[in-house]
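stuck on whats below:

***
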Amino acid sequence: MHYTPATVQLLSTEGKIVTSDAAAEYLPYIEQLSDEQLRDFHRNMVVMRMIDLDAANLQRQGQLAMWIPSLGQEAAQVGSAFAARPQDHLFPAYREHAVARIRGVDPIRLIALLRGLSHGGWDPQMNGNFHLYTLVIGSQTLHATGYAMGIQLDGATATGDLEADEAVMVYFGDGATSQGDVSEALVFAASYQTPVVFFLQNNHWAISVPVTKQSRTPLYLRPSGFGIPSVQIDGNDVLASYAVTRANLDATRSGVGPRFIEALTYRMGAHTTSDDPTKYRRSEELEFWTAADPISRFEAYLRSRGEGDGFFAEVATEGADAASDIRRRIHDLVTPPASSMFANVYSEPHPVMDAQLAWLEAYEASFAGTEGGHA
């Protein structure tokens, strides 16, 4: 499933602005962007790709239990992340590394999670309202919808002030649309007219099951059955990702109800580093999407605007430094004490947690003095 007649595209695969009827309403959002903002789009896509590639290498070298590549999906993530306003709350799945970094999460936190040293806990308030990674497929759509209901009840949205009104955006993949949780989230969002944007990154593969087997129709049509307006975009076009997401977030925060965006992109790497995509997908498909690479097309666009070799060399150096920094700091990560798993279950001390911690300590102590036991 490649692009369709309904796909909103603002930047062609050759890096040229598209002036179609579908693009017309979104081009003003692009015209308002400064040169520095456009450079930030490119910088974040490149730097995150270089971190991503190095993290996959670290897993192959035994430094990580697993890595979840986002290779090829940088435009969908960077554009939508910059479209969100500071007060917005973003709920990820587990592949939104670029969004996490843009909203303030240090990538080493993601490395620690996938090294098995963290439950993934970071304080969303301290990290741009970016909530926790969710490995249970699709459940974050319910979390996001519930949160959107909450800010609605709090009166934190639909006051008419775009700089203050809050909205929610939730990321999920095409595989998640086959989960009941997503349908339930759409039901509640539509029923309560919540200020939430559902951002579907359709990367065409739910592990080894193609999207064409999951759905006989384009996924952007599905929300219409719930009464939710939707749009399909070229997810490898960072300008479309930014403009369409900004328009829909501002619409939903104004009180008109939920919105749905299907970003057509492609998972150029493996589902995770435990997967071998060569066993189930054709080389022709990969070639098509490689030609639509989000970074190379945006570089072509920036060069057409006058950006020179110096800027791109600077960004490449920044990306290499960021990847090198992760490689250095991974060796500084320490194994947390077992007691940490009980520390933040409740906000206050809890007798059940105290009892479980005491049992674990006694159990481990029972091995003291035995061969291979704990000292």
Summary: The mean pLDDT is 95. Strands lie at 89-91, 168-173, 196-202, 205-206, 209-210, 230-234, 259-264. The longest strand covers residues 196-202.
